[in-house]
Write a structure and sequence with these properties.
The chain contains four helices and 24 strands. By secondary structure, the chain is α+β, with helices and mostly antiparallel strands. Among the domains are: about 40-55 and about 295-365, conserved putative lor/sdh protein from methanococcus maripaludis s2 fold (Beta Barrel), CATH 2.40.420; about 60-70 and about 210-285, Efflux pump adaptor protein, beta barrel domain (Elongation Factor Tu (Ef-tu), domain 3); about 105-180, Helix Hairpins, CATH 1.10.287. The radius of gyration is 46 Å and the shape is elongated.
């Protein structure tokens, strides 16, 4: 029995030693997978582009709200009650049209009092004139002294001055009556009613606001380094929120100084709105195309990759992929190109599309367009 047990143990030891030797031999025969050479990435000629020089128009964009430069606020010019208001919000009015009526009893009473003062002063002038003429005849006949005649002249001058003062006060009262009338100063549309009939109004209190929509303005802020390229009269493309088509405007004026606390200057664009499609307060984006006569080194926008605030492109150099950090300048959305200021030379082949999982220094080559790539690559979706 003991001999049989020792025989089984010996066979097991021999099997273990043989298995270990076999595994070690196989490990030496099969090299690690990391030493396997990966096939070169293949790109077609259409996927590679050379940077080229071309002019790049500068697009200056700014945004703001539409404003009606012709806006009038009708205010109360005296303390009075609002008897009636004949217009509502959205009503169309003409210049000189009556908008309502105030209780002008006190103002009319003051004007009548001033008119009575004028009449009394005019009567005093007439009396003084008559007395002077009578005394002049008596003085010619030496019935009164020159001193008495001079006193009559003084009375006439005093009465004349009193008449002029009364007339001035009457004119002031008439102006108050005229100003107290609720008359539309411009043609347009009533945008807001600030008071209701029966309300007691104070001087300069707003009653209605009238806007003329035939001409609108877009006020936007432009950076200091760009505003020098703008001038009054330049054509501006305006895209108004809620409106499908793009409309044209012109730069009307540019503010002479930057806004406090900012590095921007206000630019005002005049927009013709004869058909009144637009309304004051709508949000709009403006774009000005500034011509460019300087050739600039450009690449397709799709070739540019941005990561963590750094811009770079992939190039094919000496059959290897190279990651080049670049500095960009102008962008042209219409042509889909971007200016490269530094980091790239004209003769370097650039990947015109974005690919996933590219490695710095990976082998790469160019193949015909119809050839199937050994290592297929799928363009990554372009992020906006």
């Amino acid at each position: 029995m003991r001999k049989r047990i020792w025989g089984v143990i010996g066979v097991a030891i021999i099997v273990l030693i043989g298995g270990s030797w076999y595994i070690a031999a196989q490990s030496k025969a099969t090299p690690p997978s990391k030493n396997i050479a990966r096939p070169a990435l293949e790109f077609t000629a259409q996927e590679l582009q050379l940077p080229r020089y071309e002019p790049m128009p500068l697009s200056i964009e700014f945004a703001g709200t539409l404003q009606a430069p012709k806006t009038a606020i009708v205010r109360a010019k005296a303390q009075a009650s609002l008897l009636r208001l004949d217009v509502a919000e959205g009503s169309r009015v003409q210049a000189g049209q009556s908008l309502g009526q105030l209780d002008l009893s006190s103002i009319l009473a003051l004007r009548n009092d001033r008119q009575a003062n004028v009449d009394a002063a005019r009567a005093q002038v007439a009396l003084a004139q008559k007395n002077l003429e009578s005394n002049q005849k008596l003085a010619d006949q030496n019935f009164i002294s020159p001193t008495a005649l001079q006193a009559q002249r003084t009375n006439l001058e005093s009465a004349t001055s009193a008449l002029k003062s009364a007339q001035a006060q009457l004119q002031q009262a008439e102006v108050s009556v005229r100003d107290a009338q609720l008359i539309a100063p411009i043609k347009g549309i009533v945008s807001k009613r600030h008071a209701l009939p029966g309300e007691k109004l104070t001087p300069e209190q707003a009653i209605v606001t009238i806007v003329d929509l035939e001409k609108l303005e877009l006020a936007g802020s432009v950076a200091l380094h760009e505003v020098s390229k703008l001038s009054p009269g330049q054509v501006v493309k305006v895209q108004v929120e809620g409106l499908l088509e793009t409309i044209e405007g012109k730069i009307a004026r540019i503010a002479p100084a930057a806004e406090a606390g900012t590095r921007s200057i206000n630019v005002y664009v005049l927009i013709d709105n004869a058909k009144e499609k637009l309304r004051a307060g709508q949000y709009a984006n403006a774009k000005v195309q500034v011509g460019d006569a300087t050739p600039r080194l450009t690449i397709p926008s799709s070739a540019l990759v941005s990561l963590s605030g750094q811009d770079y492109v992939w190039t094919l150099e000496n059959q290897k992929l190279v990651r080049r950090i670049v500095t960009i300048g102008r962008r042209d959305a219409a042509t889909g190109r971007v200016e490269v200021l530094t980091g790239l030379t004209p003769g370097v082949q650039v990947l015109g599309a974005r690919f996933d999982n590219l490695k710095e220094g990976a082998a790469a080559k160019i193949v015909p367009a119809k050839s199937s790539a050994a290592t297929p690559l799928t363009p990554a979706p372009i992020k906006p």
